[in-house]
């Protein structure tokens, strides 16, 4: 998946970061997908992606979390 490839590509660059636990720059990525309904707000998608990102950070950083719970909202 693209998010994991991005994370691995950043790691492969081996950019020094003395403040990082590994000594190198890493990234955490949070991804989500939703099937929108007529009343779906963009903020809903942003909040879900933000939640996935913070879940990645809680797992120890330098990881990818995908919110696989694609919500099929009923068209109203």
Keywords:
76 residues; alpha+beta; two-stranded parallel sheet; 38% helix
Question: Your description of this structure?
Answer:
One of its GO terms (biological process) is negative regulation of bacterial-type flagellum-dependent cell motility. The structure is a single chain. The chain has 76 residues and is an alpha+beta fold. It has one domain (2-67). It contains two helices and two strands, in the order H-E-H-E. It has a two-stranded parallel ribbon. Helix 2 links the parallel strand 1 (29-32) and strand 2 (64-67). It starts with a helix and ends in a 9-residue tail after the last strand. Residues 72-76 have low confidence and may be disordered.
What is Rg?
15 Å
If you average the pLDDT, what whole number results?
A: 85
**Overall strand count:** 2
Quaternary structure type? single chain
Q: How helical, in percent, are the residues? A: 25-40%
EC number: 2.7.7.65
Organism: Rhodoplanes roseus
Domain GGDEF: 1-69
InterPro entries: Diguanylate_Cyclase, GGDEF_dom, Nucleotide_cyclase, Rev_trsase/Diguanyl_cyclase
What is this structure, in a nutshell?
With 76 residues, this protein is an alpha+beta fold. The protein has helices at 2-13, 42-58, and strands spanning 29-32, 64-67. Helix 2 (42-58) links the parallel strand 1 (29-32) and strand 2 (64-67).
């Amino acid at each position: 998946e693209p998010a994991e490839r991005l994370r691995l590509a950043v790691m492969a660059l081996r950019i020094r970061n003395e403040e990082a636990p590994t000594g190198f720059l890493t990234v955490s990525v949070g991804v989500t997908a939703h099937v929108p309904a007529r009343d779906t707000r963009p903020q809903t998608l942003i909040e879900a992606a933000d939640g996935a990102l913070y879940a990645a950070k809680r797992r120890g950083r330098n990881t990818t979390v995908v919110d696989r719970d694609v919500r099929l909202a009923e068209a109203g």
